[in-house]
Design a protein that fits this description.
Elements lengths: L1 H46 L5 E9 L5 E9 L5 H7 L4 E6 L2 E7 L2 E2 L4 E7 L2 E2 L14 E8 L1
Parallel strand pairs: 1-8
Antiparallel strand pairs: 1-2, 3-4, 4-5, 6-7, 6-8
Length: about 150
Amino acid sequence: MKRLFACIAACALFASLALAGCGSNAPASSSAASTQGSSSAVASQQADQPGELIETKATITDADGNTTSYTVQIPAADATALAVLEATDAEVTTENSQYGTYITAINGITAEGNSGWVYTVNGEQIMEAVDVCPVAAGDTVEFSFITM
């Protein structure tokens, strides 16, 4: 009988500890998740403040090798190579495709045949659509007309 009582007491103790342990973890987890969620929301709001601008540099080199340089400010929320180009005073024509937006002409110089516009960010040639390439404050985006 003592043995049965000891076994029941041990099971009850184990069950109460297990339930207490589960109970204390749940609020801590949801509290941590809540804190993490609110800090992510704050970070997101700070990064996407309306009117927040970043400064970048742009250069455009035409078919004759003439280069024009710009310092532009663009919205941080839309910081792409396309936004940099559109912030210059250059006349820009683009074309949308299933892969994104591509430059077809700058200042009347049109891509055709084996010629076209390429761009680099901080000296690195980018092989993706101009509207999906992110830029950051201080970056230099260079647009060049090339013939292959």
